[in-house]
Amino acid sequence: MKERTLSIVKPDAVAANSIGGMLGIFENGGLQVIASRMIRMDREKAEGFYAVHKERPFFGSLVDFMTEGPVLVSVLEGDNAIARHRELLGATNPEEADEGTVRKLYGTNIERNAGHGSDAPETSAFEIGYFFSNDELHSRGS
Ligand code: ATP
Ligand code: MG
Known about the structure:
Layout: E1 2-9, H1 11-15, H2 19-28, E2 32-39, H3 43-49, H4 59-66, E3 71-79, H5 81-89, H6 102-106, E4 115-117, H7 121-131
Antiparallel strand pairs: 1-3, 1-4, 2-3
């Protein structure tokens, strides 16, 4: 089933010049970039994005991290894009991520883990709409 997912190259990976490497893994893994933009999130934007985690002990630190520099937000499309993208990202903790995954290659620790991916159709719809309007999504069809 064709799906869309929200992908973020986090500030650690932008700073490390890993944008191209990461998008290459996603494209070679069968996903298409249908929208992309570099932005610098302020605290309010990052807190709203990660609102589901606001009671977690790491929330403040996560917001510090996500606002420390620019990120690349993209929408990826493809068959089972949500699960496929998370598979290509690897486990949240880079130490537990499989060889060849984004987080294994580019992540540093459980917080500074290079990439974000939506985890379900509902969160994907919310997250895509959080950064992009419909007319910015350039689906290549079929
Ligand atoms: P993401 O939502 O960013 O794709 P995920 O779904 O694999 O990652 P979540 O549980 O949703 O993981 O956590 C969101 C983000 O919060 C993680 O990607 C990581 O940056 C940070 N994080 C998660 N767990 C911890 C932790 N125990 N300590 C510090 N930071 C954490
Ligand atoms: Mg998550």
